[in-house]
Amino acid sequence: MTFLTGWGRTAPTPARLTRPRSAEEIAELVRQAPARGVAARGLGRSYGDAAQNAGGLVCDCTGLDTWSIDETTGLVTAGAGVSLHDLMAALVPRGWFVPVTPGTRHVTVGGAVAADVHGKNHHVDSSFGAHLRSLTLVTASGETRTVTPDGGRTVTPDGSGGGDGGDGGDGGDLFWATVGGMGLTGVITEAVFRCVPIETSRVRVDVERTRDLDQTLETMAATDDRYRYTVAWIDLLARGGRMGRSVLTRGDHAARDELPRGADPLAFNPGPVLKAPPWAPNGLLNPVTVRAFNEAWYAKSRPATGLIQGIAPFFHPLDGVDGWNRVYGSRGFVQYQFAVPFGQEATLRRIVARLSAEGVVSFLTVLKRFGPGTPGMLSFPIPGWTLALDIPAGRRGLARLLRGFDDQVAEAGGRIYLAKDSRTSAATVAAMYPRLDEWRRVRDEVDPAGVFRSDLARRLLL
Amino acid sequence: MRNALGSVDTVLLLGGRSEIGLAIVERLVRDGARRVVLAARGAAGGTPPVIGDAEVHLVDFDAARPETHGEVIETAAKLVGDLDVVIPAFGVLGSQAAYDADPVAAAEAVAVNYGGHVSAGLSAARRLREQGHGTLVVLSSVAGVRVRRANFVYGSAKAGLDGFAQGLGDALHGSGARVMVVRPGFVVGRMTEGMSPAPMSSTPGEVADAVVAGLRSGAETVWVPGRLRWVFAVSRLLPRAIWRRMPR
């Protein structure tokens, strides 16, 4: 038995951890699933308990690490365990970039599908699921199935074709139950998706500072569409007239002629990786240290246009510190990320005001505008605003504070992100995800005995 | 499942009418628990009490019939799924004078206060171990930390229970399941009605508050009130000749 947690390092539970190297091995494991079921795991970047399975089996899928690209179309066929980091390291020098990257490169393709991850380009490119051509997964019967977004005929990997299992011939339902389905419809083994061509490995970035939340929202609403990648960092500790002051960083892939002469246009250098200390005292992040950090960050983010930045510092600043999740101390932390539809800015304002008033210690609180979502039944993004923040788990009164936010978000027709969640309730999720019952029907059909289980699924009665 | 902030979803209370037990359940529900099983003698078929907005089930349970305890645990798990917290809260106090006069009654009380907890505890532990998570809350007592002349039948059963709980906790180490030992002093409540409270007494609500805080923090031992830990650290060192003069 191995104790596992998510990235937030809370609520560890033991499971038998196994690392299969092929879809066939996974099928065999699934056919012999223990009573407590099977959960898939990648690089453990979900913040909560999505890739844990107390008393059961956890399938570490990082052994499914082969991939290939068709450079005429940009279509990548990747094993579920391939990380976006590995893909970038290989593909960027060849002039290709992943269609969507979250704030860390250290996620697997399988995890990116299961959480239907989004990045700074959501407002124009939607989430990972929107770029998929097909998915292959091992279902509860031990069968390997390939499904497509439009429900095209499912084909077995040996090409014999035809069999579409038990979902009435509509592989599209299983596909869209799997995209964002948190790994509960089967073990994803492979995905085919389209990468985007890039001229350089740099991003041309504009940095702007806003004085308060209203200006932040206005600026983003008015001009986000001029950029492919946008995000705002909010200083949550700023109060009064400065509440919600932000640093906007927005950019596009740089063209070759925008680089200084002599630069290798497609070099991919994530830069040196610092190591977080293996142990940090609880309370290292407190209002004093975080306020100092925020002041420094705000001050150093001078307005600029046309800055040329590398992929790593622009997309994945936190990947520069290995194990940064340990700075929250032994009790770990929770990440609270919610989305509310456009028109519900009042809810966003109320929550930011409350966080600011409470002096919640969160560094790198991020605000983003979402564009259209995917048809993923449990997919998180909806057109609107999303805010993500980290909070030390030991904070007094945190449970009640976040429950209050849950209610406001649900009331506004919004939702919280399952890949980040580690503390909400089943009733809350049911209120936030109107297609949950539809998802359950598809899942029950493909996994009637509940072979695929996770602590998240148990906690939220998914 | 216990969540990142220490809230739980499901609770099983064995001795479903216990004042302390119900006080704990009420607090856990206030904290987010949504499904509750109350197990008590003749409970099945009755009207479940309203506890917040939780779903409450009633199940028959007889502490004096250890052969049924395994089944009760399984029934509860069928009703609510994984058991996040199991609280055996049954017990009888009785007076030492009455036990002196009626050894059979004393043996029966010990069978419930100790033996009943052994079978219920082991049955619960088996389930929690399979689940890979969950906490067994054992309501011990300072009476068992150092047994006093004034209530040594009750105290000796609690001493046995306390040792059992510690051993079980160690046996479960690494399984994901845990045991939390609770050592209240004198609790002013239904069980002690008519008795004059000892110094540093507490109420069922205070015991429950301490239990819930302990569940949140993952404590192994909880003293109620907390300063009894130090009082008994000293009392354990007192010579017999002094200890036997303890008035109560």
UniProtKB/TrEMBL annotation, chain A:
PROSITE patterns: FAD_PCMH (PS51387). Signal peptide: none annotated. It comes from the Bacteria. Residues 159-170 have a biased composition (Gly residues). Pfam families: ALO, FAD_binding_4. Residues 144-170 are annotated as: Disordered. Residues 10-198 form the FAD-binding PCMH-type domain. Keywords: Oxidoreductase. InterPro entries: ALO_C, FAD-bd_PCMH, FAD-bd_PCMH-like_sf, FAD-bd_PCMH_sub1, FAD-bd_PCMH_sub2, FAD_lactone_oxidase-like, Oxid_FAD_bind_N, Vanillyl_alc_oxidase_C-sub2. Gene3D superfamilies: 3.30.465.10, Uridine Diphospho-n-acetylenolpyruvylglucosamine Reductase, domain 2, Vanillyl-alcohol Oxidase, Chain A, domain 4. PANTHER family: D-ARABINONO-1,4-LACTONE OXIDASE, L-GULONOLACTONE OXIDASE. This is Oxidoreductase. It comes from Streptosporangium pseudovulgare. The lineage of its organism: Bacteria, Bacillati, Actinomycetota, Actinomycetes, Streptosporangiales.
Automatic annotation (TrEMBL), chain B:
InterPro entries: NAD(P)-bd_dom_sf, Sc_DH/Rdtase_CS, SDR_fam. Pfam families: adh_short. The keyword Oxidoreductase applies. It comes from the Bacteria. The keyword Oxidoreductase applies. Keywords: Oxidoreductase. CDD domains: SDR_c (cd05233). Belongs to the short-chain dehydrogenases/reductases (SDR) family. This is Short-chain dehydrogenase. It comes from Streptosporangium pseudovulgare. The lineage of its organism: Bacteria, Bacillati, Actinomycetota, Actinomycetes, Streptosporangiales.
